[in-house]
């Protein structure tokens, strides 16, 4: 009896400690991601986490070619643009069904668009629709022509509208689903994509499963799970022991180890991103008509909640730029997985101004400037520190601490403020911060998607801001608008270069780095392609 | 009696000598206090160098070929000397502990004495409040208080002080209840001493033993709880070299092989708490056998 | 009459014989010689009283017989204890356990704390019966009821399932006695059995012990500080002082012709119901600290008759007449007598 | 007995009321409009005004308290500011994980702690005693979060024996019924899920049980020594009982009485430890939930967790009180 | 004889069972007791444990507040005096305790312990107080150079001397000696008894001597009152009581005491049973449950304390012919 018990005990212990665990035979891919999503409505999110889930659930009228920013048909089979460039007619794909069984048709398309721009739309109240203001302010309306034909009407010609249409913001959602869940629709996403939503366990994981009725071939994966493992090392551990089959943002300190491991493969691509620290210059506007543009007459500048006297002074902002040794941060904290940034967009993009000379690391000069601005003894300032790692910023708390130490050297005391990612975005959009760490990954590869979204005065609207320094320079905005209105690339480049100079001089941002995108997969996972836009499409992925 | 006369202090010292573990505990505590006082003399580096020496980030200490000079215990993720941060951390932790326990003592002694000495509705009221506070795990209560007060080391100290107050109040109360029943207190009533005189001249001096004993033990848990709050990011904020906060910043690097950043601050906490526990246990054995549980 | 009693006793068989027992406690402060060379014996059917002040070593002597000295710090460092011919100190633990509670049983001073609070009295008594008599639970319970009736517990059927805290002090002491007698012991050690009780209850318990002693034919070793109880209960008395027996004699001699100055002083210093005096005689000084005993005779600092030799030399226990032993230099000086030879006794 | 339990239950009322007052005041003390706080940040003005109406936020505080209390008794703890989800629902989803973790840890702690304490006491001053008590001293002095990290480092990172974060392997399809993983996997006969969830449970529960284990060992030992010094132990020995009987029958039962109090109190320690352990091991329980709640200033979440933890603790103390009655016959008087 | 302390219908009940649901129950520790202590008299108050004798003593000193009844000191009613007024009385009455360990503050030197009552009552200057302390210490047999020592450095008997010295410091008229020799060893007990007797004579003290040991009471007291379950059952001058105990309880008590002389071995009646609980005392005469002479009336009616010849008071239905019926009611 006793010996039997002992054997059973031994067996249990053996089983429990067996490293093998459950074999990953099935078509399940668990992806270790750094943070949880803020919501699952494609039109109502801005963070990569949420977008990357939705890329697999939803589809838009058009989509990007894999690994590039070229457009190809998706839910629209073809389209025609009117001569003046203000009307585009889309012919929709027939026989597509949403995950809930609803038919995809013109009504669904109109619904997905109209709820964002039409304030009288019954579903308008359930979202903030933050991207609409950035990218689609030129859209007037979407009209149904017949069941499978729609017409997009623009207020004025916009060269980048087709790439914008490949964005998640205008993915088509199921109207019946939205009706069913109303304000909770964001928790119950329903699209036409290759994967269906199964469950979202907050702070833990999101499970998707293959859409059996997908209009293309069914995905190779049966199940796709996004598991939140916020700690990069724990994430790598989980990959190494086979808990997950792929991870994002590995700890740069671990890259050598990853390369040495035959069981793993490292994917690296230059990132279309920028990581920065923004300093709140103090003023924004309230976009009352929600047109995404600051109407100079009716929408005056008001103090942001995070208004902080010293940061309103250019000398101070320049001093802060001078006080931080970016090279050291890039070398030691990014560990060489990034290049030092001096401008607000990556160097390979159109209009990048390489002539600009970056602020050097010069604490002495910084102190002088501070004294000149009237703060010889420095001041205390609050820094919003991101709780999650992003492609453009690895381990923000560490970078925050580095900045804290550098600024301490010139007499500025930095206090940290940390909240969860969703709230973080919310609060920074509202301008609650004095300084914040943030960054940007391009959506469509157009410089406008950096310059206008991040640095334009129109993006200073309190509550939906993208310009986190609240750099409200209208001259600059005019340059950016002009760049968008013309199709002449040289002209555009010139406008952007000029704008970058102004931005550099104003010093509202400390640009830290443009980092490479690093992803690690088990070596038996094939087919994943890193996109410049940092969007994750798992449809082509195969586990062998 | 032929034996030489022995005062209480002599007796205490003699009994302390027999209690080896208490002596050991005392030694640790003394070392800890010395570290705290002289941190700026003995620490090889600044705990928060500014500008930072990022190039030293996560470099190992004396045990490795790759060691970073002048940092015997290696460097943390920010390239700061772990040993120096631990030494300065002693200052932070001890201060936090003493302040928290001090708050608990002042409040606890006041309420405990009132409750125990006067009894009746005063006692009932205070004890009900104590019961309610006891319905929360200490750390949770501290967290709740921090939620209201806001994060930071100063707030954490206050929170822990408040959290420990009911415990101290109960100890004092039971001690007062016990002493109150002693005949030498009854004599005071027979003589006609005033309540204040009885409390300050007789009751409190005789409650010193449990106060010292539990104060010491409480100091140990205050340091632990303070570190716990720091670990959760609710206590000391960066770049304060607080042991718990150091841990929370460093433990993600153990996978990358930088075990030292997470190991040493923990050992510092462990040893200071062991020291205080040993000392407290020893003092309990020596001062007041009645307190043994 | 005295003579006859003595004669009768001499013919009785010796039950317990203690020779030169030494029990010391080793503490941080030093060695406490709680019992330091004690010798006496108890015959079958006899009641021996051991009397002395606190710290004189009475209880330690009793516990040594039971081998219940807590170790550490206590230890029996020397001597022999012969019980029914066997030296108890040489027995294995297993063997001594067969004697404890069966042949030798003990009643303690504090009836309030001497019973396990979480078991019923029936269980407690049943346990010892089961252990030593091999009876099953049911039989043991029956036996327990019987014995509880004998010790005079009213309403036994109900009381047997009571917990100790539900009984009064007197009742608890009765339960203790019942437990002690349940296996018909040949020696009953009663360590201050009535000190914690009121006089009226004390009288009840003392009478009970006396009655049962006759009924069960046991010898009794009665430890007390109260000379009244000694007078009431005992045949022979040993007077202890600071770990030594200073006088050993029969009860009548003790009260009529005590020889040791301590015994004399003791009996004069108690207020008596039967005699009225204006002023009590007192023994000066205080009971000595066992850690710091005076040299020579431990009583010499308090003795009115002490002389040089008392300070220097420990007196021997000598037999003055039949069964009257005294440990005092004075006595030796006055009455020349031989040293006790236990074997000739 | 019945009366005793009723009495204890009645004595809970003021404590629970006090707890609720404390939880209630949390939101009022916190900065911001309580209506927005309760409704959640994403709520529309209509919802907010409905909340204001529902909770009577313009009425006096006492009225507000009663209204709020009624809502709580109906299971309405408001919505999380961050997730906009009902707090009660989120707590309900997470508490099985916390219960599983704490109960398993408590079980380990009681068994191992008591045995170690008893053996230690029965062999006082032996090598075994010294080593157990030395370990126990370490145990009570350990910061639980550091212990968790060290376990992770040794068994997870270096030896690769056990997983270091999460509740169950993501590779395993698993059907939730009660929310208790071990139980559910047994019900569904899913051995792989059972083993996997057990594997995930081991490190956190070792980390969590160490401190109460050490405390219980220490208390058991000193309680045993205390009992062994008592008069009745001498009586039992005088009866001729073997040392085994004396210790395991008489001493242990008596010694357990204070130990039970300590176990009850330690449960509080355990819950506090769970907050830390769950954070270290990314355990999807209430502890991590409340920490997130605090960092995000998600007051309704903190409030809900406070109520949850306090009620758990109160219930455990009630159970302790009831266990007393079975162990200590004297309690009838109390 | 002139009365120094007079007690009338004194009651002291302790409330137990404080639960919100349960009914309040009272321990009737002292239940309607009347007696007096004459000037320079030693009155022995004797009874078994729990009979209320100690409570009675403490209630007289107002260490405990009486539930009902009055206490007169020197003709002044002190039961309702306020704190400030009471202080003047307190210096005239003191207490000596049983436990020589518990009654001294372990953290005070014996000098300050003895001086404490003087400090409280602001008698004399610091120096005068010190002189007085040394004087008293010599009186009670302590060496003046021990003045700065702490209680733990003394033996039990010496501590009892310190307690006595403290009680004498303010020059009191009345002392309650609460079992003050019970905890001492026999040889030490005699020393303390003698000391008390000497001091009583020297200072003309009035003493209420509370004890359970009848032989000590007999030795030291002038008059004796016997208590049973919160009541006085018999009170008489010493010889009268010991030679002619009337109440069956007193008789039983006397016969229960073992006499240290084998010639006096008892063969007589022994009182059976236990003392009933003071929470729920028996109806009628409280002794009836154990009395061998019990009659029907004993169960129903409570006997009054009546005075017989030779100042001998008895509360028993067996004796129904008091000498002076006028005194009944508030017997003394």
From TrEMBL, chain A:
Recorded superkingdom: Bacteria
Record SUPFAM superfamilies: Periplasmic binding protein-like II
GO molecular function term, any single one: peptide transmembrane transporter activity
CDD domains in the cross-refs: PBP2_DppA_like
Record keywords, A-Z: Signal, Transport
Pfam family, one: SBP_bac_5
BP-aspect Gene Ontology terms: peptide transport
Domain (Solute-binding protein family): residue spans on this chain: 71-457
Transmembrane segments: none
Keyword Oxidoreductase carried by entry: no
Any one GO cellular component localisation term in the record: outer membrane-bounded periplasmic space
Family: Belongs to the bacterial solute-binding protein 5 family.
Annotated protein name in UniProt: Peptide ABC transporter substrate-binding protein
Organism, as annotated: Candidatus Sediminicultor quintus
TrEMBL record, chain B:
Keywords: Cell membrane, Membrane, Transmembrane, Transmembrane helix, Transport
Presence of keyword Signal: no
ABC transmembrane type-1 domain mapped to chain residues: 90-280
GO CC terms in record: plasma membrane
A Gene Ontology biological process term: transmembrane transport
Family statement drawn from the similarity comment of this UniProt entry: Belongs to the binding-protein-dependent transport system permease family.
Protein name, as recorded: Peptide ABC transporter permease
Organism name: Candidatus Sediminicultor quintus
From TrEMBL, chain D:
Alphabetized Gene3D superfamilies for the sequence: MetI-like (1.10.3720.10)
Major place of residence: membrane
Superkingdom of this protein's organism: Bacteria
Domain ABC transmembrane type-1: start-end pairs: 95-324
GO cellular component, one term: plasma membrane
Keywords attached to this entry: Cell membrane, Membrane, Transmembrane, Transmembrane helix, Transport
One GO term of the biological process aspect: transmembrane transport
PROSITE patterns in alphabetical order: ABC_TM1 (PS50928)
Keyword Transport annotated: yes
Subcellular location: Cell membrane
Pfam families with a match to the protein in the record: BPD_transp_1, BPD_transp_1_N
Keyword Transmembrane assigned: yes
TM stretches of this protein: 9-27, 101-121, 133-159, 179-202, 255-281, 301-327
Protein family per UniProt: Belongs to the binding-protein-dependent transport system permease family.
Entry protein name: Peptide ABC transporter permease
Native species: Candidatus Sediminicultor quintus
Origin organism lineage: Bacteria, Pseudomonadati, Atribacterota, Candidatus Phoenicimicrobiia, Candidatus Pheonicimicrobiales
From TrEMBL, chain E:
Keyword set, alphabetical order: ATP-binding, Nucleotide-binding, Transport
SMART domains noted in UniProt: AAA
Residue span, ABC transporter domain: 5-254
PROSITE patterns the record matches: ABC_TRANSPORTER_1, ABC_TRANSPORTER_2
InterPro entries xref list: AAA+_ATPase, ABC_transp_ATP-bind, ABC_transporter-like_ATP-bd, ABC_transporter-like_CS, Oligopep_ABC_C, P-loop_NTPase
CDD domains: ABC_NikE_OppD_transporters
Gene3D superfamilies reported in the protein's UniProt record: P-loop containing nucleotide triphosphate hydrolases
GO molecular function: ATP binding; ATP hydrolysis activity
GO BP term (any one): peptide transport
Any matching Pfam family: ABC_tran
Family: Belongs to the ABC transporter superfamily.
The protein, known as: Peptide ABC transporter ATP-binding protein
Originating organism: Candidatus Sediminicultor quintus
Taxonomic lineage: Bacteria, Pseudomonadati, Atribacterota, Candidatus Phoenicimicrobiia, Candidatus Pheonicimicrobiales
């Amino acid at each position: 009896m006793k010996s039997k018990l002992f054997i059973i005990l031994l067996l249990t212990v053996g089983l429990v400690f067996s490293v093998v665990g459950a074999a990953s035979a099935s078509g399940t891919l668990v992806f270790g991601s750094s943070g949880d999503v803020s919501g699952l409505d494609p039109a109502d999110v801005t963070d990569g986490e949420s977008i990357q889930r939705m890329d697999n659930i939803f589809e838009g009228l058009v989509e990007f070619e894999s690994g590039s920013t070229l457009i190809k048909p998706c839910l629209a089979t073809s389209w025609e643009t009117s001569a003046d460039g203000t009307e585009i007619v889309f012919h929709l794909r027939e026989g597509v069904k949403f995950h809930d069984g609803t038919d995809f048709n013109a009504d669904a398309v109109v619904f997905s668009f109209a709820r964002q721009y039409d304030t009288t739309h019954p579903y308008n109240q359930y979202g903030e629709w933050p991207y609409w203001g950035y990218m689609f302010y030129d859209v007037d309306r979407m009209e149904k022509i017949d069941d499978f034909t729609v017409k997009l009407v623009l207020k004025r010609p916009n060269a980048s509208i087709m790439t914008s249409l490949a964005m998640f913001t205008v993915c088509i959602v199921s109207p019946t689903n939205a009706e069913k869940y109303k304000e909770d629709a964001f928790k119950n996403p329903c699209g036409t994509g290759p994967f269906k939503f199964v469950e979202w366990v907050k702070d833990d994981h999101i499970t998707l499963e293959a859409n059996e009725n997908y209009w293309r071939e069914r995905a190779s994966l049966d199940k796709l799970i996004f598991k939140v493992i916020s700690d990069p090392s724990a994430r790598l551990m989980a990959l190494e022991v086979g808990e997950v089959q792929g991870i994002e943002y590995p700890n740069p300190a671990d890259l050598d180890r990853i390369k040495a491991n035959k069981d793993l493969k490292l994917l690296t691509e230059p990132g279309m991103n920028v990581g920065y620290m923004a300093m709140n210059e103090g003023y924004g506007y309230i976009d009352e008509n929600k047109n995404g543009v600051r109407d100079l007459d009716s929408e005056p500048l008001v103090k942001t909640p995070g208004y902080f006297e010293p940061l309103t002074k250019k000398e101070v902002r320049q001093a802060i730029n001078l006080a931080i040794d970016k090279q050291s941060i890039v070398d030691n904290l990014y560990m060489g997985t990034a290049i030092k940034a001096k401008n607000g967009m990556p160097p390979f993009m159109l209009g990048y101004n390489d002539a600009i000379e970056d602020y050097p690391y010069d604490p002495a000069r910084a102190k002088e400037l501070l004294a000149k601005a009237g703060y010889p003894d420095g001041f205390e300032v609050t820094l919003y520190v991101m709780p999650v790692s992003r492609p453009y910023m690895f381990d923000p708390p560490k970078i925050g601490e580095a900045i804290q130490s550098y600024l301490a050297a010139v007499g500025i005391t930095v206090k940290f403020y940390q909240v969860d990612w969703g709230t973080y975005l919310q609060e920074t959009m509202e301008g609650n911060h004095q300084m914040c760490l943030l960054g940007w990954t391009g959506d469509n590869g157009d410089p406008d998607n950096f310059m206008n979204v991040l640095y334009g005065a129109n993006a200073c609207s309190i509550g939906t801001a993208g310009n986190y320094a609240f750099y409200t320079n209208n001259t600059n905005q005019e340059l950016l608008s002009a760049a968008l209105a013309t199709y002449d690339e040289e002209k555009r480049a010139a406008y952007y270069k000029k704008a970058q100079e102004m931005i550099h001089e104003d010093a509202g941002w400390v640009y830290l780095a443009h980092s490479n995108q690093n992803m690690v997969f088990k070596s038996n996972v094939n087919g994943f392609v890193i996109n410049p836009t940092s969007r994750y499409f798992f449809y082509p992925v195969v586990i062998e | 009696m032929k034996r030489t006369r022995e005062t209480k202090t002599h007796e205490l010292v003699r009994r302390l000598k027999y209690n080896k573990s208490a002596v050991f505990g005392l030694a640790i505590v003394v070392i800890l206090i010395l570290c705290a006082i002289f941190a700026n003399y003995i620490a090889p580096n600044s705990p928060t160098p500014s500008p930072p020496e990022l190039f030293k980030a996560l470099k190992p200490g004396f045990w490795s070929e790759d060691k970073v000079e002048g940092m015997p215990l290696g460097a943390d993720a920010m390239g700061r000397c772990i040993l120096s941060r631990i030494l300065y951390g002693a200052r932070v932790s001890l201060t936090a502990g003493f302040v928290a326990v001090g708050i608990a003592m002042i409040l606890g002694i006041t309420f405990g004495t009132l409750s125990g000495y006067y009894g009746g509705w005063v006692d009932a009221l205070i004890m009900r409040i104590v019961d309610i506070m006891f319905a929360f795990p200490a750390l949770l209560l501290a967290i709740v208080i921090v939620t209201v007060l806001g994060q930071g080391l100063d707030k954490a100290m206050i929170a822990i002080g408040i959290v420990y107050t009911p415990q101290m109040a109960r100890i004092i109360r039971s001690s007062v209840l016990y002493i109150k029943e002693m005949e030498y207190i009854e004599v005071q009533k027979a003589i006609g001493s005033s309540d204040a005189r009885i409390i300050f001249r007789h009751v409190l001096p005789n409650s010193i033993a449990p106060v010292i004993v539990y104060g010491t033990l409480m100091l140990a848990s205050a340091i632990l709880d303070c570190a716990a709050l720091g670990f959760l990011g609710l206590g000391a904020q960066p770049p304060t070299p607080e042991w718990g906060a150091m841990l929370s910043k460093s433990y993600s690097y153990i996978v990358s092989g930088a075990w030292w950043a997470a190991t040493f601050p923990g050992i510092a906490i462990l040893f200071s708490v062991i020291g205080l526990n040993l000392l407290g246990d020893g003092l309990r054995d020596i001062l007041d056998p009645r307190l043994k549980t | 009459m005295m003579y006859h009693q003595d004669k009768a006793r001499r013919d009785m068989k010796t039950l317990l014989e203690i020779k030169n027992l030494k029990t010391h406690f080793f503490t941080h402060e030093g060695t406490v010689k709680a019992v330091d060379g004690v010798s006496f014996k108890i015959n079958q059917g006899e009641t021996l009283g051991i009397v002395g002040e606190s710290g004189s070593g009475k209880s330690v002597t009793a516990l040594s017989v039971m081998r219940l000295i807590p170790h550490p710090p206590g230890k029996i460092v020397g001597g022999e204890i012969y019980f029914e011919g066997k030296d108890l100190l040489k027995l294995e633990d297993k063997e001594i356990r067969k004697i404890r509670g069966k042949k030798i049983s003990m009643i303690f001073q504090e009836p309030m704390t001497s019973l396990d609070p979480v078991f019923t009295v029936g269980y407690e008594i049943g346990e010892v019966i089961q252990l030593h008599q091999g009876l099953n639970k049911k039989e043991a319970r029956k036996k327990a009821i019987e014995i509880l009736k004998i010790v005079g517990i009213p309403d036994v059927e109900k009381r047997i399932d009571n917990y100790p805290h539900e009984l009064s002090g007197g009742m608890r002491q009765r339960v203790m006695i019942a437990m002690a007698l349940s296996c018909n012991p040949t020696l009953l050690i009663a360590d201050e059995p009535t000190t914690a009780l009121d006089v009226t209850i004390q009288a009840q318990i003392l009478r009970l012990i006396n009655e049962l002693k006759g009924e069960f034919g046991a010898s009794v070793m009665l430890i007390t500080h109260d000379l009244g109880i000694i007078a009431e209960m005992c045949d022979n008395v040993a007077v202890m002082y600071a770990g030594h027996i200073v006088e050993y004699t029969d009860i009548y001699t003790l009260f009529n012709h005590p020889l040791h100055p301590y015994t004399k002083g003791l009996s004069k210093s108690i207020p008596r119901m039967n005699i009225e005096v204006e002023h009590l005689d007192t023994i000066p000084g205080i009971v000595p600290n066992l850690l710091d005993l005076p040299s020579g005779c431990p009583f010499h600092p308090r003795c009115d008759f002490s002389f040089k030799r008392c300070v220097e030399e420990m007196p021997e226990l000598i037999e003055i007449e039949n069964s009257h032993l005294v440990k005092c230099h004075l006595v030796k000086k006055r009455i020349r007598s031989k040293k006790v030879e236990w074997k000739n006794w | 007995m019945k009366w005793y339990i009723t009495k204890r239950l009645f004595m809970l009322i003021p404590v629970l009321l006090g707890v609720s007052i404390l939880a209630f005041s949390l939101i009022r003390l916190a900065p911001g409009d309580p209506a927005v706080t309760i409704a959640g940040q994403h709520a529309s003005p209509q919802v907010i005004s409905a909340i204001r109406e529902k909770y009577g936020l313009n009425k006096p505080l006492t009225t507000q308290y009663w209204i709020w209390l009624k809502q709580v008794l109906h299971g309405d703890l408001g919505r999380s500011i961050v997730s906009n989800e009902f707090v009660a629902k989120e707590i309900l989803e997470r508490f099985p994980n916390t219960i599983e973790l704490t109960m398993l840890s408590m079980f380990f702690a009681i068994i191992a702690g008591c045995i170690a304490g008893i053996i230690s006491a029965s062999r006082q001053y032996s090598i075994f005693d010294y080593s157990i008590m030395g370990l126990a001293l370490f145990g009570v002095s350990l910061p639980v979060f550091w212990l968790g990290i060290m376990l992770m480092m040794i068994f997870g990172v270096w030896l690769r024996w056990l997983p270091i974060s999460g509740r169950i392997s993501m590779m395993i399809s698993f059907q939730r019924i009660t929310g208790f993983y071990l139980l559910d996997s047994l019900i569904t006969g899913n051995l792989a899920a059972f083993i996997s969830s057990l594997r995930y449970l081991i490190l956190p529960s070792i980390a969590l049980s160490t401190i109460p284990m050490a405390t219980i060992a220490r208390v058991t030992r000193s309680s045993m020594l205390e009992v062994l010094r008592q008069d009745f132990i001498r009586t039992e020995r005088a009866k001729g009982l073997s040392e085994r009987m004396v210790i395991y029958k008489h001493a242990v039962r008596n010694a357990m009485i204070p130990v039970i109090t300590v176990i009850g109190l330690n449960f509080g320690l355990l819950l506090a430890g769970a907050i830390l352990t769950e954070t270290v091991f990314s355990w999807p329980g209430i502890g991590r939930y409340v920490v997130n709640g605090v960092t995000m200033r998600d007051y309704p979440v903190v409030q809900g967790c406070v109520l949850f933890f306090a009620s758990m603790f109160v219930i455990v103390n009630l159970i302790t009180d009831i266990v007393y009655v079975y162990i200590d016959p004297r309690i009838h008087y109390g | 004889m002139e009365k120094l302390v007079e007690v009338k219908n004194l009651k002291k009940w302790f409330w137990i069972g404080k639960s919100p649901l349960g009914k309040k129950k009272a321990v009737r520790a002292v239940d309607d007791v009347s007696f007096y202590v004459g000037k320079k008299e030693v009155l022995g108050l004797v009874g078994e444990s729990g009979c209320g004798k100690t409570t009675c003593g403490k209630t007289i000193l107002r260490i405990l507040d009486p539930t009902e009844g009055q206490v007169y000191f020197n003709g002044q009613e002190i039961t309702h005096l306020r704190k400030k007024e009471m202080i003047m009385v307190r210096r005239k009455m003191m207490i000596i305790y049983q436990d020589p360990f518990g009654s001294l503050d372990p953290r005070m030197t014996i000098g300050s312990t003895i001086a404490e009552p003087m400090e409280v009552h602001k008698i004399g200057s610091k120096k005068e107080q010190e002189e007085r302390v040394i004087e008293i210490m010599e009186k009670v047999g302590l060496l003046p150079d021990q003045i700065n020592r702490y209680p733990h450095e003394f033996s039990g008997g010496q501590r009892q001397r310190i307690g006595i010295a403290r009680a004498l410091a303010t020059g009191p008229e009345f002392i309650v000696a609460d079992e003050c020799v019970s905890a001492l060893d026999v040889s030490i007990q005699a020393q303390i008894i003698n000391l008390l007797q000497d001091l009583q004579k020297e200072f003309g003290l009035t003493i209420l001597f509370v004890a359970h040991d009848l032989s000590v009471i007999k030795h030291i007291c002038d008059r004796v009152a016997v208590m049973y379950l919160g009541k006085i059952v018999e009170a008489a001058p010493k010889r009268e009581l010991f030679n002619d105990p009337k109440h069956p309880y007193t008789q039983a008590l006397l016969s229960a005491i073992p006499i240290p002389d084998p010639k006096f071995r008892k063969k007589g009646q022994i009182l059976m049973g236990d003392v009933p609980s003071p929470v729920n005392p028996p109806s009628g005469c409280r002794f009836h449950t154990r009395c061998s002479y019990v009659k029907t009336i004993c169960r129903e009616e409570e006997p009054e304390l009546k005075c017989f010849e030779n100042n001998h008071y008895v509360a028993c239905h067996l004796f129904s012919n008091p000498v002076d019926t006028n005194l009944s009611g508030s017997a003394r």
